[in-house]
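Q: I'm teaching a short session on how sequence maps to structure, and I want students to see two examples side by side rather than one. Could you give me a first protein with its sequence written out and its structure tokens following it? Keep the formatting plain so it prints cleanly on a handout.
A: Of course. Example one:
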Amino acid sequence: MKKLNTILLFLGLSFLAYLLWEVGPHELWQPVKALGWGVIPLILSEGAANFAHTLGWRHCIKSTHPPTRLPRLFRIAMAGFAINYLTPSASMGGEVTKASLLASNHKGPEAVSSVLMDKLCMAFAHLLLAVLGSLFLLWRVSLPVQLWIAMAVSSGLLTGGMVTFLLMQKHGKLGGFLRWLVDHKVGGRALERAAQQIAEVDQALKAFYRERPLDLLLSVGWHLLGHAVAIFQVWLFLYLLHQPAPLASVLAAAFLGLWIDLLTFAVPLNLGALEGSRIVALKAVGCGAALGMAFGVAIRVAQVFWAAFGLINYGLLAAQLPPSAAGKTGLPASAAWQRITGRSVVIK
């Protein structure tokens, strides 16, 4: 997986360099310079999206006494975002980080299950908004047939994967394969303990689906709102550069950008894909490539700001944990399970 992320990172950097060469530094600098301090509201809007996603996660967490306060939960969420954004961890290092930090005042299996549930709700909300957006795009934007086919096939694959993951969570089958191996005397004591730990997570997930269906819907709703901030960002960017566009064009550009983001989630830092997607999105509604590139750069500045905020908070929050629980990019596997479950994993 690390090798795959390295390859994706290299491809992303190469594509970004190609885009800079094609657009031209001078043409790119003009809209960026014109934006000026206008980047601040874009940064704030990105923060609002992250806050909405944090509220979505909050609905996946079992209440405790005292409950995790929302400012602290936001800091934990941003710490996870920073690890996912800044390290080639296949969007998993940040999830381990969030679970381990949340486990400071929640039971381990409940912390892990909340992160798994939130990941599914966020992805489902993104897919739902992208699919609804594609129906809107169908009548207003002329795209190559190949792109429509790719969008349709990818949406089918993503939907199938999410439904499978949901059913596995609902019926407590995430650790089914490990339990099968244990039943057949494969893996020894280490695998047996891992299967037991995942079984506890399975039980927490089953309880969530059984007892809190409304929270599931509310979580998806908050994540939908967080993703929908992309629509406001397109409008705001064009407004700040005195390039007003009809609402239909703003929606089309935002939906197209969301679609490409969904398809390129595995690229570390979304390098190249973010800028390229915004060029495609704004060109599809009649804007120039330089304007699309500048928009991608502005959004990247906002994301880097919140990644830096999250990284600082990760350091502050991790400093409160026992030394054995700290990790370089999240937590090492054994330390993570020890922190999350309260048990040590002995490898024999």
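Q: Perfect. Now a second example for contrast.
A: Example two:
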Amino acid sequence: MEPNQKLKTGVLIVNLGTPESTGTGDVRRYLRQFLMDGRVIDIPPLPRWLLVNLIIAPFRAPKSAKTYSHIWMKEGSPLKVYGYSVEKKLQEALGEDYVVRLAMRYQTPSIENTLAEFEKAENIERLIVVPFFPQYASATTGSVHEEVMRVLRKWQIIPDLRFINSYYDHPGLIEGFALSAQKQLAETDYDHIVFSYHGLPERQLTKTYPGGHDCEKAGCVHGVNALNRFCYRAHCYATTAALVKRLGLDPAKTTTCFQSRLLKDPWLQPYTETVVKDLAARGVKKVLAFSPAFVADCIETIDEVGVEYRDMFLENGGEQWDMVLSLNDSQIWIDTLVDLVVNYKV
């Protein structure tokens, strides 16, 4: 580092990850790295290895590869395309006092390699880590934080470090999803609004707190309070409440639910697939679906919410199922990130 070189703040933005291509081999490699994370499948290492490598990855990879081929953009994976666009726009918005880099928790660009760029730069005096998960969960935000700390503990000089834990009701996040739904809500009189979040095993919420956690006693479905400030379920319901208020929706015509179950253990309920079928059985004809756990459209939003649940709804008697696009690389998402980087307070 030159004596007069200006010190800067590094900003590491991190999303979940994506296969390198739509090939079955690349998808299998991605699934193995993702699902071998002990925070994602939180069972002992040996049974996890057997489950992932002998059952899930071999059998799920071909089907997932086909799905990825349907959502792949001309420039590549949606998560990477939007991720690099956000990196560029956020760098421009923050200016020369910051260095912004994109990383993925799984596959490339890896957190380890991206952090190495900051280390080699030598003029990074502070590091801000922004996981792209609005609602805190050990399996997402917690995993990002753990990986960053694993890498940084090897550095001789560790910069001033700040983690963004959650922003489930940040005004910019809420406004971004509201604006994304604006045209659909103006054009269609929907019978019901579904807020579908990524699911988690119930046991992971219990493990969030050393003494255990009871969502019913903590009032998690009513939002965030002193007893549940790190509970994923509470964060999700708080996001829904903020969107319902912002959009002026009738709470009785909205449902918060959870998608993407894996294995047979109890996961957060109600399950989105159950809600979809129940709505159709009740005679609901027009539904608008939000996925506010995802700030960029991906396989879970484009295919699972946009295609699978739509087809399920129509097959069971529904008439119209629309999906709200995520924030992707919109200006309001960039503005929100700037605020998180510059003004965030725990």
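Q: What should students look for in example two?
A: Point them to this: The mean pLDDT is 95. Also worth mentioning: The chain has two domains: 8-167+331-343, 171-323.
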